[in-house]
Amino acid sequence: MSSLRVPESWSVRHSDACVAVLTIPGAVGATRAFDVDVQLLARLPHPLRQAEMGLSLEVDGSRQWSRTILGSTPGETESLEYHCRLVVEPGRDVRLRARAQLQQGALVALSLSAVEAMEV
Q1: What confidence score (pLDDT) does residue 49 get?
Q2: Which of 50, 60, 98, 101 has a CA that sits 20 to 30 A from residue 20's CA?
Q3: Where are the domains positioned within the chain?
Q4: Which tops the pLDDT comparison, 4 or 90?
Q5: 15's torsion region: left (phi>0), alpha (psi -120 to 50) or beta?
Q6: Domain 9-116 class?
Q7: 39-58 average pLDDT score
Q8: Quick one: which of 97, 91, 21 has its CA closest to 59?
Q9: Closest by alpha carbon to 55, among 10, 109, 114?
Q10: How do residues 81-103 score in pLDDT, each as one tens digit?
């Protein structure tokens, strides 16, 4: 009889902070892969002012990805997202940090999640 293991899942969501941090603990003797998703959702309230949205992801203090875009839906909400796969070595914790930057916009939500990718 075999038992199926449930994939690990870590997540954080903020509506009042422009930084989200997750730590994935290292497993003893097992290399694991995680699908990491970062999403910035912002309201661009002023239709006459050009809004700018920025999002970055750091892994253990090193920048993994960063992007800044001009808002294209003034008066509404807009999102900026990033997805990657991350390998976590045995016994080693990994710290993820997402940072949002907004000009002429307001934070609705900043989400950071990591879901273990289960090999078939």
Answers
A1: 73
A2: 50
A3: 9-116
A4: 90
A5: alpha
A6: mainly beta
A7: 88
A8: 97
A9: 109
A10: 999 999 999 989 999 999 999 99
